[in-house]
Amino acid sequence: MAEQNPINGAEAGDNQPQLVLQKVYIKDSSFEAPNAPQVFQEIGESQEQPQVQLNLGHKTTEIAEYTHEVVLSLTVTCTLGDRTAYLAEVHQAGIFGIAGFGDEDLQGIMATYCPNVLFPFARQVVSTMISDGGFPPFLLQPINFDALYAEQMRQQQDGEAAPQHLNS
C-alpha cells in the first residue's frame, strides 16, 4: 500500500517537505474612535501631525499533527497630541499544513513565511476599518518578517551567551 501524504491524505511518492495554506480567517477584530466626533474637527484644524504607532506579534498553536494555526496580531493606534483618534486591531489567522521540516526550519516557517502570507489580509482589514471609521485612508507598509526573525534569533543568542560571559 502506498504511503499517505500527512497533510492531505493523497498518496505520497516521497517524503518531500510540504507546506499548504488550508484556511485564512479573521479570528478577532475591533475598531475604536473614542474621541469621535470631536476628533474629526481636531484633525482638520490641527497644525500637529497625527502620530501612528504599529504593534505586531504572532502566535502559533499546533492544532493537529502537521497542522498549525498562526495568528498575526496588528494594532494600529493613531493619536493627535495626547488624545486617541482611533485604535484598529485585527488578529488575522491561518491554518497551515506543514510536514517534512526539521524543528528549526518549522520555527522559521511559522515566524516568517506564515506571517508574510497573512499580512496582506490583515493590512486590508485594518485599512477598511480605518476608512469605514471616517478617517483618511491608511495603508500599512510591507514588513520584513525575515529580518524581524533574524533579529529575534540574534537577541536570543546574545541573551544566552551573556550569562556565560559573566560567569567566566
Describe the 3D structure:
Helix 2 (103-132) packs across helix 3 (145-167). The chain has helices spanning 38-45, 103-132, 145-167, and strands spanning 18-32, 51-64, 67-80, 83-99. The chain has a four-stranded antiparallel β-sheet. It has a single domain, classed as SecB-like (Bacterial Protein-export protein SecB, Roll). The model is unreliable at 161-168 (pLDDT under 50). By secondary structure, it is of the alpha+beta class. Helix content is 36%, strand content 36%. Strand 2 (51-64) and strand 3 form a beta hairpin.
Principal-axis shape equals elongated
> Can you count the beta strands?
4
Number of helices: 3
Distance between the termini: 58 Å
- State the CATH architecture: Roll
Rounded to an integer in angstroms, the radius of gyration calculated over CA atoms is: 21 Å
CATH class: Alpha Beta
Mean pLDDT: 88
Strand content: 35-45%
Structural class estimated from helices and strands: alpha+beta
Could you list the spans in which at least 5 consecutive residues all have pLDDT below 50? 161-168
What order do the strands of the largest sheet run in, or round the barrel if closed? 1-4-3-2
Give the biggest beta sheet: 4 strands, antiparallel
Helix content: 25-40%
Gist?
With 168 residues, the chain is α+β, with helices and mostly antiparallel strands. Helix content is 36%, strand content 36%.
Features:
alpha+beta; four-stranded antiparallel beta sheet; 168 residues; single chain
